[in-house]
Amino acid sequence: MPPRTAVFFHAHPDDEALLTAGTMAMLAAEGHRVVLVVATAGERGLAEMEPGEELGRTRLKELYESAALLGCARVECLGYGDSGLSPKGGVAEERPDNAFIDADTEEAAGRLAAILREEDADLLSIYDPAGGYGHPDHVQVHRVGRRAAELAGTEIVLEATVNRDPLLRLLRLAGKVYRFPPEFDVRTFESAYSPGEVITHRVNVRRYARQKRAAMSAHASQATGGDSDRTLAVLLKVPGPLYRLVFGTEWYVRRDLPPGTRLSHPLDRWPR
């Protein structure tokens, strides 16, 4: 397979490590060009910072470290403000004037499309319509990414997601032996991510589990802060063999393929 160029569009630093790091590392190892674009610096994330540190700057440094571990050839931040998240999980009432969620879709898509054209991108990775777990900036990534692909003529658009069917089963089972924090409602996952029936790509990334874990570890600022255990901190405590099992598959939906398609590589089934 000749070298291709894949652009991965994420909302905040550390999103790439959680959802697509294995795929990115695999493509880079195979000789493809991998480009990482984030909409914001994630400056409204929770973190325990040292005096004088600025969270957005710190998170971008962590992003570049993660990208280097994954073999990315280029990293870009579009510079929008982190929209934040309300305590109930919706759009935050107080947010910066340049919040990504308030950005004009055409304008933001035009900026991303310019990168796609410059890179002559073959593939764009975004999120599913639910934005994964529903963060407003993630939903905006879906909208902006879809439009950018149209503007740039990028034919392959993969929606990074998680197969929510086994996830729900796992959470319900875990709930029988573990008391989740009061703010954690398993029922919210009934509409999060994507059902297995629409997933077209199941990418085995177990060979790249160490790089994926290292990319997560690079985002050290997101392992602290808040009143309860941070998701990233919990995931990094998972033992190696179990980590490879749980995080060894990454899922994508390609909407122009028929439901029930089962592909194992993001570059399979290119248009003829």
TrEMBL record:
Signal peptide: none annotated. Keywords: Hydrolase, Zinc. One of its GO terms (molecular function) is hydrolase activity. Its EC number is 3.5.1.-. SUPFAM superfamilies: LmbE-like. It holds the Pfam family PIG-L. This is PIG-L deacetylase family protein. It is an enzyme of class 3 (hydrolase).
